[in-house]
Design goal:
By secondary structure, the chain is an alpha/beta fold. Helix content is about 50%, strand content about 10%. The chain has 14 helices and 9 strands. Strands 2-1-3-7-8-9 form a 6-stranded mixed beta sheet, with helices on both faces. A 3-stranded antiparallel beta sheet has the order 4-5-6. A hairpin with a 2-residue loop joins strand 4 (about 80) and strand 5. InterPro entries: CHAT_dom. It comes from Longimicrobium terrae. This is CHAT domain-containing protein.
Length: about 425
Amino acid sequence: MRKITVQVFAADPLSSAAGGSAPRLMLDEEVRRMRETVRAADYRDAVEFDVRWAARSDDLLQAMNEVTADVVHFSGHGGSHGLVLVGDDGRSHAVGAEGLARLFSVFGAETRIVVLNACLSLPQAEAIAEVVGCAIGTRSTISDAAAVTFAGSFYRAIAFGHSVGRAFEQACAALALKHPLECECPQLVARSGVDPATLVLLPPPVARRPAAASPVALPPPRWWRLSRTALAGGAGALTLGVSTWVYGWNAGQAPPSRDGQARPAVAAAAQQEPRRVTGAADPPHPPPSSRTGEQPRVEPVRRPAGPPSSSRPQRGVPEVSRRPRPPRDPDAGTLAFAPQALAEARAEFARGEYQPALRRLDAALQRLEVLDRQFPNSQPVRSMLKQIAAQASEVRTACETDAAVQKAEAKCT
């Protein structure tokens, strides 16, 4: 079976360098998710990973000389100036689209696709696609959790034998399920004449065979049935004989004592009560009532007099009025602000207006917390509170990442 090699370059200089202001990226979690999803696929033995941590510019040249990769995957920060790698001094170093395109024009003869899992990497992906044929980039900022989800789902589909186009669609569907605000962020670009839907890195998926039917139990042969019946009859006869002997021994038919005479206790019992010795059952004693011919009197149960029970309403006694229960859920008008705020925040996030979207979501969270205290068991309030809190967390992460990228770009300029 043909094998493919995925060469991974991971770099996080904005948080690992001295004085780094950006939050630490989950690069190790991304690589672990990629390997985990591949191990659960049909062609898990056909995909090999070559990971280079804290990648520098020289590491790209060294790795491409050592390994011929079918897929090149970059994971880290990105910006308008290019991908952010680690410089020789340990600080951030941006590599632009022109440099990446020239790199793959020299080493990318065997490379089928390049994945740039970083923010604002679409211009670099378009330049690389003109050389390699196919590349994936992002048109805006992408959160760390969404990047991990996209990478795991993409390589899972590749390891199942799907095409690059189908794998990209599955990865975007995974984002729509877990991170709906960022499902349109990744973009697949291809050179003219290259169709990602027909670009298959591994053989097509294997057709699943139906599970074999369980074998039908055949009846035993006739000789075995007859033998089993005979054995059962013999065992029953033996049990009956042993039971009869034991019963007779208990009734006084035990063997004589050492002097050859019957045991006195048993003999005396045989003379006084022959019926008990022979095992005959005593006639049943008639009930006391049959001796006189009279039927026993049944005294009626008299209940003590007292006030009527309060467990159920009595005639002439009014029922205790019950207090009306408070409503469990607020009405539709009270909760209408939450979906509207969520939709407006998504629109602002898509336009890149992160701070207004975050303020809108925080205000909605405060109102929902007040409703949660008024309606503690309301399922609609809890559900909307959970959705808006998750979206606010993603927007807040995007704001922090965007601020770190802008700071890195300011240093580069």
